[in-house]
Amino acid sequence: MQASRALTRRNRLVGYAFLLPNILGFLTFICFPVMASFVMSFTDWNGFGDITFAGLDNYKRLIGDESFRISLLNSIVMMVVSVPLTLLLAILAAVALNKGIKGLKIFRTAIFLPHITATIAVAVVWQLLFNPTMGPINGILRSVGIENPPGWLASTQWALFSVIIVTIWQNVGYYMVLYLAGLQGIPKDLYEAAEIDGAGKLSQLIKITIPMLSPVIFFTIIMGIINSFKVFDLIFLLTKGGPGRSTHVLVYDIYYTAFQRYEYGYASAMAYVMFAIIVLITIIQFRGQKKWVNY
């Protein structure tokens, strides 16, 4: 009995030893910075001088900050436009590829490849494509009779939507793989029974596929919303927040405030407001999922 307890204790210690590096990394690089930034959000500090306690001043300042309002609006636009389109295209691609068409692996790879391609490479390619004067996109538009095509990344009206287009193109493959996994878990008996009852393909999609896929859809909606608020690298590489503030989203504004204006306390307050917005949206999603998600 004692030997068994000693062996159990030893196995636990070995398990904790394997977990220790990950736990230390989590505490050092995630927990501590999160707590430090929360404390910093109540201070006024430029990274060099003394830290001054500011109370709720940083949060009050956000209310009247026009730059913050623009960034918040741009983030909401990106979420509202990119998330539904990305998920819709991913579902359509997954349904099409789930039919067992010829060259299935090639199509899957082609759609998923942008997601694993280095962002710097994606940005360089799309900068060339979106070039207003020499880019192939505007070249095609001129060839079909459009004399004044959009300026894309160089236009204050089109820059944000250009980034959204690249974001959708880059992320469709990731969500497609999730939907494919969900589709392959739906019993084929359901479709066979529906065909016997005379249900068409569209009816099967609405009555069987989407309800059975609803847990995956719920998960991808939450992840899509969170990821839409986290878009930074593409904006940094493609536009650097410009032209003007047309592509200033919250996460880029946080970076700009902290590392260009050296207002670390104010940037921390912005980060926690963004965190609160994401948590609120997620809570609403979890409350609403009881009405439409079928487990």
UniProtKB/TrEMBL annotation:
The keyword Transport applies. It is a multi-pass membrane protein. Pfam families: BPD_transp_1 (PF00528). It comes from the Bacteria. Keywords: Cell membrane, Membrane, Transmembrane, Transmembrane helix, Transport. InterPro entries: ABC_transporter_permease, MetI-like, MetI-like_sf. The keyword Endoplasmic reticulum does not apply. Residues 72-285 form the ABC transmembrane type-1 domain. It is found in: Cell membrane. The chain crosses the membrane at residues 12-36, 76-97, 109-129, 158-181, 264-286. Its main location: membrane. Belongs to the binding-protein-dependent transport system permease family. This is Carbohydrate ABC transporter permease. It comes from Paenibacillus vulneris. The lineage of its organism: Bacteria, Bacillati, Bacillota, Bacilli, Bacillales.
